Amino acid sequence: MDDSENWWRDAVVYEVYPRSFADANGDGTGDLAGLRARLGHLADLGVDAVWTTPWYRSPMVDGGYDIEDHRAVDPLFGTDADALELIAEVHRAGLRLLIDVVPNHTSDRHRWFRAALAAGPGSPERARYHFRPGRGDGGERPPTDWRSVFGGPAWQRVPDGEWYLHLFAPEQPDLNWDHPDVRAEFEDLLRFWFSRGVDGVRIDVAHGLVKDSAFPDLGADHEDLMRPPDRGRHPHWDVEGVHDIYRAWRKVASEFGPDRVFVGEAWVAKPDRLACYVRPDELHTVFNFDFLRCSWDAGALRSVIDCTVHALHAVGAPATWVLSNHDVVRHVTRFGRANTRVEDHPCPPGPADLALGRRRARAALLLMLALPGGAYLYQGEELGLDEVEDLPEDVLTDPTWKRSGHTQRGRDGCRVPLPWSGTAPPFGFTDDGGPTWLPQPSRWRELTAQAQRDDPQSMLCLYRTALAARREHPALGDGTMTWLPAPEGVLSFAREPGFECVVNLSAEPVELPDGARVLLASVPPEGGRVPVDAAAWLVRR
């Protein structure tokens, strides 16, 4: 483990969705004991830290992001003792652990919300949430025209006639961050987990906590978490008051040492807005969703990289690059659909070319790991897993499926349990060989960790090799970069001392620069040239 207080500036963090990582008790659902048993895979991969999505007590309406008790482990994942043992074992493996905190909303089973429903209109209990009278003579219409990210109105009426706000599912009522109880509760929650040894916190919907107190209409009929707000003043995304919250949180983290960190999930319109979240007295890092959303196009990627680096370096923060996560279509599938952007899903034209997608994913990995700053990997991308787009309708659990009127399949396709070994499902995911909570495709037999472990041409071997080289080369990690002249459709940049990266997104092979030795390539160079949809790391002789 890197003991530096600035370890986070260039860390590579591996995201674990525990429900789909590894199952130790044979019920077909991943758990904390399963994660502990597979920590060796992560240590061998060469990452610096692990981020786990929520393991807390939850009705699981939204995959664990509807939290009933932030301080208790849900029995689906194990016990409170399992969480403490996981923290200890992560540290023994030489890694750090980040956990998820969900401050925008609670479950409707949370003690606060149950008290609010029981107390009635105008009560102090309801003030912790956003309850409002409806519009119309009988209050039969929602207070505003705001829309849920999962589809439908963002307001739910209760039997006494009032409405409460839920920007996500109705079972996820939004908290009122103007209430002192809410602020005090989450600061205490941070202390609870920091005192138990976690190294950092990923903040869910970090841009959504504060709402415009006037509750103005949006004037639009659709909201989408994956589309940053396109207006200068949005009533519930990226409202200025969120920054006071994170200044207070930064002080809490500092109580436990300079190496405790935050990473924010903030979907915002422009890089300069993103930079506001990582000013020196606020969060440490934020996810770079512009990079994740970008099409496979050299000009678009260069623009995103330039804007990101410029905006974040202006406030002294490093960039954090990411290609996939538990909320978006896996990038092998995205890259297999020509230049499709994230928001073009879920109804892109035609099937994905997965061979093309994996070829581009290999090149994208080398691009991402060569850029200055840190990176986040999503479980299974090191195996080259694709989106499972043909899950049976009767197994879909994402709330988007129901609330969209069965027109959008949601995020289950990127959350299918991992294949570890063997030639047929459940591919070593569960000890008793029974079915997994979401079915795995049989085509993954060639993508198991066991099948790839000793294959030097595999995706897994590329990830291990690239992460090891990144750790060893003094030019990589935090720092600066310089663009080099390159043909149209090619990205080429240098990092000192003595490192170059070339990514060929053009239609023709491109010549390797003179006087350079290939350190690593996504596919072997051909006749001194980088093939199409390939990347190479070079060192000067």
From TrEMBL:
Gene3D superfamilies: Glycosidases, Oligo-1,6-glucosidase, Domain 2
Name recorded for this polypeptide: Alpha-glucosidase
UniProt GO BP: oligosaccharide catabolic process
Family recorded in the similarity comment: Belongs to the glycosyl hydrolase 13 family.
Stretches the record annotates as Disordered: 397-417
InterPro entries: GH (IPR017853), GH13_cat_dom (IPR006047), O16G_dom_2 (IPR045857)
GO molecular function: alpha-amylase activity
Glycosyl hydrolase family 13 catalytic domain mapped to chain residues: 15-415
Bilayer-spanning residue ranges: none
